[in-house]
């Protein structure tokens, strides 16, 4: 009955996602839990990396169904969670801050995935005379609003002695920003993931990086409805543990095989995908962890920065949308 009541919201967000990504709203394959009474609708950004990872590790045989939906950013995933069209979102620290800005979040951060912060960059187009963040003064800079790109661009400007008002900030979706960069309508672009890989392949130069700015905390967020359902909580706990196990499986001597999967999805040479994977794991291993006071405090720093920037109209206490409800069962599963 709960899912039936959310059908209209689902249809609305699916149409939105289709327009944004050109991939359709439920752009993922279902899990192998045929006959299960539980279906988790889980978001993915850029490409369905988690789905591919589980399949690669032979851990996609879940006793429940998983519907992976593709989005261009964690911000869109949180919008879908808020609309009742998604059960679980994966994002950086930033999207939940804006999703909770109205003071009425209907979701909770339930786990933290530690990960690398590579391919989080500010790039200038091929042939540009801009070689540093300081040279962006008076320039038009595209960025993905309410995401890591928004945050690390702001922080990099501060470190270069500039303020947000020293640039003409142009909020753009990744695909449109890439076209704007190549077409010359923006002087630089702050983005992440596939859009940065594509930009570099087309000759763009990196002029700033979020590597030393971002915490490496990527958040798993679940709707209040999902947390209130025992079977769904158990399924989510199991899914998170499987993802952690799958990452360990790749690190156990299967990096090159997995790089082939990544290269196919991101349209880059296998050697490049392998190099990026190895560098990323060297910086910080990808691991799922229960929520902690330290991780919560890290997001509070981010929220305070956006308040200083003026992107938030009032202060936000992020601990209000964090929950340790999965901590005990998740620790148990991770220890197996």
From TrEMBL:
Task: Kindly indicate whether the keyword Cell division belongs to this entry.
Answer: no
Signal peptide positions on this chain = 1-19
Q: Which UniProt keywords apply?
A: Signal
**Pfam family, any one:** NMT1
Q: Which CDD domains does the UniProt entry name for this protein?
A: PBP2_SsuA_like_2
Membrane among keywords: no
Query: Domain Solute-binding protein family 3/N-terminal spans what residues?
Result: 39-262
Tell me the protein family, please: Belongs to the bacterial solute-binding protein SsuA/TauA family.
**What PANTHER family does its record include?**
ABC TRANSPORTER SUBSTRATE-BINDING PROTEIN (PTHR30024:SF48), ALIPHATIC SULFONATES-BINDING PROTEIN-RELATED (PTHR30024)
Per its record, how is this protein called by name? Answer: ABC transporter substrate-binding protein
Species name for this entry? Streptomyces purpurascens
Q: What is the lineage of its organism?
A: Bacteria, Bacillati, Actinomycetota, Actinomycetes, Kitasatosporales
């Amino acid at each position: 009955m709960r899912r039936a009541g959310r059908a209209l919201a689902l249809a609305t967000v699916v149409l939105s996602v289709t327009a944004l990504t050109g991939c359709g709203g439920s752009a993922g394959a279902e899990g192998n839990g045929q006959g299960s009474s539980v279906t988790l609708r889980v978001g993915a950004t850029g490409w369905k990396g988690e789905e591919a990872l589980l399949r690669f590790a032979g851990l996609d045989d879940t006793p429940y169904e998983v519907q992976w939906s593709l989005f261009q950013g964690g911000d869109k995933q949180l919008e879908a969670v808020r609309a009742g069209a998604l059960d679980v979102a994966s994002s950086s620290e930033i999207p939940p801050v804006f999703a909770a800005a109205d003071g009425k979040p209907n979701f909770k951060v339930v786990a933290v995935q530690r990960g690398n912060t590579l391919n989080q960059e500010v790039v200038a187009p091929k042939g540009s005379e801009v070689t540093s963040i300081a040279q962006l003064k008076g320039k038009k800079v595209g960025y993905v609003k309410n995401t890591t790109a928004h945050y690390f661009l702001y922080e990099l400007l501060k470190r270069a002695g500039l303020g947000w008002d020293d640039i003409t900030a142009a909020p753009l979706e990744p695909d449109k920003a890439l076209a704007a960069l190549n077409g010359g309508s923006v002087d630089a672009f702050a983005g992440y993931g596939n859009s940065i890989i594509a930009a570099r392949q087309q000759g763009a130069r990196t002029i700033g990086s979020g590597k030393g700015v971002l915490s490496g905390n990527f958040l798993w967020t679940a709707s209040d409805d999902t947390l209130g359902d025992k079977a769904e909580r158990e399924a989510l706990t199991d899914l998170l543990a499987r993802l952690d196990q799958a990452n360990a499986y790749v690190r156990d001597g299967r990096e090159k095989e997995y790089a082939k999967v990544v290269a196919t999805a991101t349209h880059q040479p296998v050697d490049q995908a392998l190099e990026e994977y190895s560098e990323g794991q060297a910086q910080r291993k990808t691991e799922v962890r229960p929520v902690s006071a330290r991780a919560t405090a890290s997001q509070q720093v981010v929220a305070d920065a956006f308040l200083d920037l003026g992107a938030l109209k009032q202060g936000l206490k992020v601990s209000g949308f964090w929950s340790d409800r999965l901590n005990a069962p998740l620790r148990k599963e991770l220890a197996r």
